[in-house]
Amino acid sequence: MQAFMDGESINKEALKQLNRSERILVGLYFYESLNTEDIALVMQKSTDVVENALENVFQKLSQIAQVESESTEFAAELF
């Protein structure tokens, strides 16, 4: 999870690359501090669906962070 976090907040540029439902999940989980059971109630989904969706979002954010990190390293090498 730490790979896509910038200090105490999630990288805003990474959030822009998520779709609406993914951003809602992130908002409920991180900013509203809801657990998966509560998110499932709010979204009218099963807990398993919410847990799988969160796992997918975490993976996506990690991949975004990795690409951004590699791009930054490459740019630094140019200068």
Give an overview of the whole structure.
Helix content is 72%, strand content 5%. The chain is built from four helices and two strands. The protein has helices at residues 12-16, 20-31, 36-43, 47-78, and strands at residues 5-6, 9-10. The protein is elongated and about 50 Å long. It starts with a strand and ends with a helix. Residues 1-8 have low confidence and may be disordered.
Topology, pairings included?
Elements: E1 5-6, E2 9-10, H1 12-16, H2 20-31, H3 36-43, H4 47-78
Antiparallel strand pairs: 1-2
Mean pLDDT: 81
Number of helical elements: 4
Largest sheet: 2 strands, antiparallel
Q: Helical amount among residues, as a percent range?
A: over 70%
H/E topology pattern: EEHHHH
Q: From the alpha carbons, calculate the radius of gyration and give it in angstroms.
A: 14 Å
- Which strand-content bin applies to the residues? 5-15%
CA-CA gap between termini: 30 Å
* Low-pLDDT segments: 1-8
Specify the overall morphology: elongated
Question: How are the strands of the largest sheet arranged?
Answer: 1-2
Structural class: mainly alpha
Number of strands: 2
Structural features:
elongated; 4 helices; mainly alpha; 79 residues; two-stranded antiparallel sheet; 2 strands
Task: Give a quick summary of the entry.
This protein is mostly helical. It has helices at 12-16, 20-31, 36-43, 47-78, and strands at 5-6, 9-10. Helices cover 72% and strands 5% of the residues.
